[in-house]
Hints:
This protein has 323 residues and is mainly α. The chain has 15 helices and no strands.
Amino acid sequence: MPQKQKPKSWTDLKQAGNECFKTGQYGEATGLYSLAIKELEKSNKKNPEDLGILHSNRAASYLKDGNCGECVKDCNMSLELFPFNVKSLLRRAAASEALERYRQAYVDYKTALQIDCNIAAAHDGTNRMTKALTEADGPAWREKLPPIPTVPLSVKEKLARQAAGAPQPNPTPQHNGTRQTNKPPTSDKDMKKSQALKDEGNALVKKGEHKRAIEKYSQSLKLNPTEVTTFTNRALCYLSVKQYREAVRDCDEALMIDSGNIKAFYRRAQAHKELKDVKACVDDLNGLLKVEPKNSAALKLLQEVQKKKTSEPCCSFGISNPA
């Protein structure tokens, strides 16, 4: 009689969920994070922050799958267990924005900026929410906001210490010498050097020297791995040199930082089209059109892909791409 397999530990389940997330298997990742949550809740070593991170990771999977309601619920739970967790704040903000709950999104983006003023996604989100709320409520829109919590200094210091010493709780694949890490804000010196390298990359793109531009962007990202436009710029270069999987990875990174980034959605859609992954291409274009419904380039590409899909045999446009 075969032995009954011992249940995996919550850490093993979490790691398996992270691996699924990295490869875009968000439904599978959600299931594994759910099992990890159950295992951790049953264990004697239950730690509120560990549980909070699991809920935050599952929220990321829900967000990727477009299940914004469940994402918000998981972020709420995560923030109860692990107050002022930046990733949970940003994920809840992105989900709230998608649900058109602009006031809550604004509050979460502003709260995240209290913890780290260098988060590009939070700055961009704040600007989008300011525009949306001004259009909806007029000049007095701030009067209708819920209160924005003040992040205590002790919490900022604790989070900075954890970020400096702890491993990254959420999957961020390493490639081309860069890694987006949960670390203290980049120094002014590194920010300036990173920007200079990015500018050099931009100049090389204008000359059509895409391979050399990739090198400059990679060097820039080593110094500042939170600059979303550097990822989308490098993705453009990868598209130009036909390195489509690398373009997808850079767009993944960009969308982890800014979940509504138009260029990341569009360039990833272009890469998926070249990789003959029609479903992923269409999903990205639909994601883009949720943010910017009248984007003419996205509408044109969507029409082109759907027309090609219906006119060719289904086998010629396989949606499964081996890693």
